[in-house]
Specification:
The protein has 12 helices and 9 strands. It is of the alpha/beta class. The chain is about 45% helix and about 15% strand. Helix 6 packs parallel to helix 7. A 7-stranded mixed sheet has the order 3-4-5-6-7-8-9, sandwiched between helices. Strands 1-2 form a two-stranded antiparallel ribbon.
């Protein structure tokens, strides 16, 4: 009898907790509202709540588990470029609809809607600026704009930026994030791969440094071209990097792929990526790499250095 009563009491306690969870406490309701207002941010990886202002100060990297939240192009530029040194290039280059393509809606409508919603013209921002006082040409892709897909404008803007960098003898950094080529522009978007690669080759022939930074996700035509052509290739932790999607490869191979397939860590292990750098260290790392690759000052020509070295080894003998 006592046992029965006890269990009834326990049951009602469970019910009370269950109901409370269902209805949500006033506190959790307030929390939900504050998340919706953008005051708080819930980490999609570990679920920890952090104050959005603190998260932004930590470059949108979760302080608890190190998850790298997606960052838009403006925020990236703010994170990397010294204040008041950013000079955007080709801001008015606008996409057109040469194939009059239509899926669920016409491409031209889709472009207009996305442009109005995001205040962006297309999926990349390019410009010249300084990173810890060193001049660079920087391209930043924006995944919000049609999945960071590469159409004619992305290709043309990056090409023009690389050409400027070659002329001015600036290093190039491109922050990559892309779902691949923009299918609505058909072959014209595929051509961009060759165009950008050719511009990069001229940049390389001039003995200049190019560093792509692969962020989550970098896939398709971007991986198949400029994302993999760097002198040094940097990736953000846990970024998905690949060409075709996992499902397509599994179906073709009829084999289950390992869990860490197409992650930055797996690519590093197999030599496709040179280093994985946390976003909080990215600016300092890029600045250091660029400083190391600066040409020698013209006042110390290589010949003088060579003579000095010969002299120093002569004294040792
Ligand atoms: Zn987290």
């Amino acid at each position: 009898m006592a046992n029965n009563e006890e269990s009834r009491g326990l049951k009602s306690l469970f019910d009370w907790f269950a109901n409370r969870r269902k209805s949500g406490s006033p506190n959790s309701e307030r929390q939900e509202r504050e998340i919706a207002d953008g005051l708080w941010h819930k980490c999609p990886k570990c679920g920890v709540l952090s104050y959005t202002k603190d998260l932004k100060a930590n470059q949108m990297v979760c302080g608890d588990c190190g998850h790298h939240n997606r960052v838009d192009s403006d925020e990236r530029i703010r994170q990397l470029i010294d204040a008041n040194t950013w000079n955007p290039l080709d801001e008015n280059l606008r996409p057109t609809d040469p194939l009059q393509f239509r899926d669920r809606k016409p491409y031209s409508d889709r472009l207009k809607e996305t442009q109005e919603k995001l205040g962006l013209v297309d999926a990349v921002k390019t410009g010249l600026g300084q990173i810890n006082t060193l001049p660079i040409a920087l391209g930043v892709m924006d995944f919000r704009f049609m999945g960071g897909s590469m159409g004619s404008v992305v290709g043309e803007k990056l090409t023009r930026m690389i050409e400027q960098a070659t002329q001015r003898r600036y290093p190039v950094v491109i922050i990559c994030t892309s779902g691949g080529a923009r299918m609505q522009e058909g072959m014209l978007s595929l051509m961009q791969m060759a165009k950008i690669s050719a511009a990069l080759q001229r940049h390389r022939d001039s003995k200049l440094l190019y560093i792509p930074v692969l962020t989550n996700p970098t896939t398709g035509g971007v991986t198949a071209s400029f994302a993999m052509l760097g002198d040094l290739i940097i990736a953000e932790p846990k970024a998905t990097i690949g060409f075709a999607g996992r499902r397509v490869i599994e179906q073709t191979l009829r084999e289950k792929l390992p869990e860490d397939f197409q992650t930055a860590e797996d690519l590093l292990k197999h030599g496709f990526v040179d280093d994985i750098v946390s976003r909080t260290q990215l600016k300092a790392t890029l600045a250091q790499l660029i400083a190391l690759h600066q040409p020698l000052p013209t006042t110390t020509p290589n010949m003088v250095l060579w003579e000095t070295m010969k002299l120093s080894s002569a004294t040792v003998e």
